[in-house]
Amino acid sequence: MSFINYASREINCKIVYYGPGLCGKTTNLQFIYNKTAQDAKGKMISLATETERTLFFDFLPLALGEIRGFKTRFHLYTVPGQVFYDASRKLILKGVDGVVFVADSQEERLDANIESLENLKDNLEEQGFQLEKLPFVIQYNKRDLPNCTSVEELRSLLNPDQVPDMEACASSGEGVFETLKAVAKLVLIDLKKGG
Amino acid sequence: MLGSQSSLVMYDEEYQRIMVLIQKLLRESNAKVIFLVDKNGQLIAATGETEHLDTTSLASLTAGNIAATGGLAKLIGEKEFSILFHEGEKDNIHISIIGGRVILVIIFDERSSLGLVRLRVKKASEELGGVFEDLVQKTVIHSEKVGSDSPFAEITDDDIDNLFN
Ligand SMILES: Nc1nc2c(ncn2[C@@H]2O[C@H](COP(=O)(O)OP(=O)(O)OP(=O)(O)O)[C@@H](O)[C@H]2O)c(=O)[nH]1
Ligand SMILES: [Mg+2]
User: Using CB atoms, which residue from B16, B54, B64 is nearest to A42?
Assistant: First the structure.
């Protein structure tokens, strides 16, 4: 849920990166962090295990600029993708304004993608949200790897509603900002509708 | 109550009332820093020695902390733990929930005490709770007429594209 502050003339929106373990959610945020000017970002917080798996969340606050005299801030969060961290994922989803589903394009992760997307729907529904009504984009990540499922197949399995989707290689940064921009745009359009 | 999909909105009038209340609380509790955070991790207001504090990070972690302990509470059949207290070597953090939705965070050192903070928080919570109730009412009215006079109704594709340049 966005936070509109007329006193400080700011809009804050929360975007959550979701997806199976090791699909590249944290890598997306790290790339955004590294490529964003100092004055446009805050500290990136990663609550991670010693092996750098997300334990609770990553958090990156971005200040993108002004719209109609309002400072626009996006708070980016990632969830922990590992199946057994479901309780934490539910908490991170609270008050979400937009979701990025990061799919792992590798063939052997096909089932994990489908399972994670189902889990996203379930967890949203538990809070009275419907994925179809939320600003939502899909990123097919790790396109650089040799054992990728074709985009057509991924699309037919993961994106029946034809939300905006894009290919990416988060480790090199390809597609990362395109993804962020796509979801931010949907969030702002939603805000315009008075969501 | 706010619907889960509606925005939290802050207006000048309520913001001023909130600032007056937390500044008073800061003085009366001899605290170093006080801030208010939405349960989703958005900073609402802060006062005191905030210059060297990363309030955005603090807000997000506080909300995560409350969310995690709230999850724990449910597991053992409690509604929530309405007060959290973290004791450090010099500084301590007192966290409480106001009106079920807003988190009040007080950072204090040896110039104050847990007892004093508790006492002052109790009274201030009621007053702050009243302001947030007014805010919810106002937001409901606002969201009914949104579209006509909302500053965001006029957002164009260009506005959005410009953000990323
Ligand atoms: N080859 C390749 N590797 C990638 C890509 N994106 C991420 N990785 C690697 O995949 C591994 C896992 O990435 P993370 O970003 O930590 O994955 P995550 O989704 O945050 O995982 P959890 O925190 O466990 O949910 C890291 O070693 C990354 O370098 C990509 O596009 N291509
Ligand atoms: Mg991660």
Answer: B54
Distance in angstroms (rounded) separating the CA atoms of residues B121 and B125: 6
Q: What is the pTM of this model?
A: 0.91
The span from the CA of A28 to the CA of A9, in Å, is 29
Question: A81: left (phi > 0), else alpha (psi -120 to 50), else beta?
Answer: alpha
Looking at the 3D structure of chain A, how many domains does it have?
A: 1
**Cβ proximity of A82 and A53 under 8 Å:** yes
CB-CB under 8 Å, A75 with B60: yes
- Residues from chain B that touch A55, judged by Cβ atoms under 8 A, are none
Contacts of A185 (CB under 8 A, 6+ apart): B160
B46 close to B33: Cβ distance less than 8 angstroms: yes
pLDDT at B63 over 70: yes
As for the ipTM of the complex, it is: 0.81
Give the confidence band of B155 by pLDDT, cuts at 50, 70, 90. confident
What size, in residues, is chain B? 165
Q: What is the CATH number of domain B30-145?
A: 3.30.450.30
- What CATH number is given to the structural domain containing A73? 3.40.50.300
The CA-based angle A56-A59-A62, given to 5 degrees, is 170
pLDDT in tens, A28-58: 999 999 999 999 999 999 999 888 999 999 9
The band of B90, judged by pLDDT with boundaries at 50, 70 and 90, is very high
Side chain identity at residue A56, one-letter code: F
What separation in Å is there between the alpha carbon of A132 and the centre of ligand 1?
Answer: 26
**Residue scoring higher pLDDT (B134 or B5):** B134
What's the domain range around A83? Answer: 3-192
| Mutation choice for ligand 1 from A16, A33, A171, CB with most ligand atoms inside 8 A | A171
User: In angstroms, how far apart are the furthest CA atoms of chain A?
Assistant: 52
Q: How many CB atoms lie within 10 A of CB B115?
A: 8
Question: What is the reported pLDDT for A38?
Answer: 92
